[in-house]
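Lab notebook, page 48
Experiment: co-folding of the full assembly
Goal: obtain a model of how the components sit together before planning crosslinking
Operator: M.T.
Materials (sequences as entered):
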Amino acid sequence: DTGVSQDPRHKITKRGQNVTFRCDPISEHNRLYWYRQTLGQGPEFLTYFQNEAQLEKSRLLSDRFSAERPKGSFSTLEIQRTEQGDSAMYLCASSRGQGGYTFGSGTRLTVV
Amino acid sequence: AQSVTQPDIHITVSEGASLELRCNYSYGATPYLFWYVQSPGQGLQLLLKYFSGDTLVQGIKGFEAEFKRSQSSFNLRKPSVHWSDAAEYFCAVVTNTGNQFYFGTGTSLTVIP
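Observation: model returned without errors.
Model output:
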């Protein structure tokens, strides 16, 4: 069990640029989640995959956001035309069924 | 709708003192409840979870939590706090489909010598 890995750990980007984050879940976990955490708040749900199928999306996930999990393993979260309001910690988690949710260390995005 | 309330934004305790962090949830069915801890700039580490059965659950680092259905609460406790426990603590509820966490806004713990 190597844990959930997220890359990069930190990303600074200029407003209007596109960014992509990667999450590698625990290998035997079929469920993968993305959350966003802003300063002083708890994480907020963005989207959920079971294997390669994206089954739920939050209304927070505007049309500038897209997530994929093409082979049911790693996942990417892309933000197009970044805005300052996108600055946050983006957390990935994985689980096998309904138990054992494990979070990664997150990617901190700063939009300048 | 599901929600979690952590009424204490910030708590300060002396090292060696006991600790209780409050969590109240709102959920129509039997909840799955979790406590996570987050150090600055880090992800979330699971302390403990309640799915069913014994309402007093033990977790890592000497933490425990008690599920009280009548009070819709899941308070986190530790009998003797260590300086390394200083962090942000989040309570969360998961729907019975297990697809989405609802987190509280967190309680920041400061430990003074």
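Interpretation: Chain A touches chain B through 27 residues (CB under 8 Å).
Next step: discuss with group before ordering constructs.
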